[in-house]
Give the backbone structure.
Amino acid sequence: MNSDRLNKEYIDMIKKDQEKYIKDYKKTMEKIDNSTAIYKGETVPTLYHPMFFLEEDMENLKTIGKSMMNISNKLTDRYIEDKEFRKKFGFPKFIEELIEIDNEYGINIPVARFDLFYKDKDNFKFCELNTDGSSAMNEDSVLSDIMLESKALKDFSKDKDIDDFELFKTWVEESISIYKQTKDAKENPNIAIVDFKESASKMEFLKFQKTYKDAGYNCIIADPRDLKYKDGALFHKDYKIDLVYRRMVSYEIIEKREEIEDFLQAYKNKAFVCIGTIRSQVAHNKIFFKILHDEDTLKYLKEDERDFVKNHIPYTGTFGGDKDIFKKVLQNKDKYIMKPMDLNASQGVYVGRDLSYEEWKKRLEDSFDKNYIYQEYFDPFQRDFLLMTDDRFKEESFKTTIGMFMYNEKVKGIYSRIGQETIISGAVRYFSLPSMLVKE
């Protein structure tokens, strides 16, 4: 059994008894509409159809995740040690100084979501590394909980063990484990989930807060602008913070640095333990993939790591400086996707295949020397899913992408999305699917 055959089995089961499952589909979608699966104020779009993973897939993904993490750590360590290598990234001096600060728990990337196109252990290509404010745990958790109660999955699980990926208790356990590695760790630290309120994933933060509290810890949600550094500690009003779960992204820290001077001073003085230090910016910035393909970087890696980069990291270049680069990208419209170096949620991303030559040229002119990268476009792997059309389930092919949730450098869950456009994200029509682990 492989995941494609399992998926076909699910499709056949639904199509054999459409009336039964259409009725349950409507109930399931109503539950989702009234749930906390919300993105930017809207209910997360989904289907009555999970993304299935087998134990073999999870073993593959654990191996892939470990390889990518090892390479990320190797280059992050080199960034710290080698000031000449550091120049490749072009970070502001302010960020450089924050990256240099040791976090005392010895992990460069304590939490991340590694996004990739995946088919099997040999066929996969990375899309990007979200090591800065990684999110979407709530989407997967809520959709999975509701879908597990559906008639479809109850029927489908009669001869199978089907379960979702637990992402909240697991993170609480892992984050406390990381915290306990620091020299002055307290038995019961005061925790703060910190992000700018205008960017915060409110429902997700509330669920993390509740999970910390259920585990016996104090926990607040705070905007960094409301925090004060006094008497050698970081406070929110009278609440002294020992542990920060950082969700604010680095580009917002750069934009709003003058508004969060107390937080930054406390950070520099190690007045609290920050899980998700600014050091994760090294792998998060999209120039990281460009640097991986540089000849001197490849020589720095072991042979198996070089092969991993060449086969599974899309070729990436800096879009600026040399006019020959502009000409190369312009003349190979269908070969490239353009991305800002340090924005999230597909902001500013565009694909040559979607545009006419004139549109492509205009967009490139606007992006040249403006902190953009050009990247090899990879056509995602496809799988069939059931879409509700005119009150009937219809089978359609979708492009797929997954995100590996990495907690404490280990794969702990999967975020699944599908779409029919060249980009699979909230910026275009897409569906977020509950991820399910199936054991025969």
In short: The longest helix spans residues 55-81. The chain is about 40% helix and 25% strand. The longest strand covers residues 392-407.
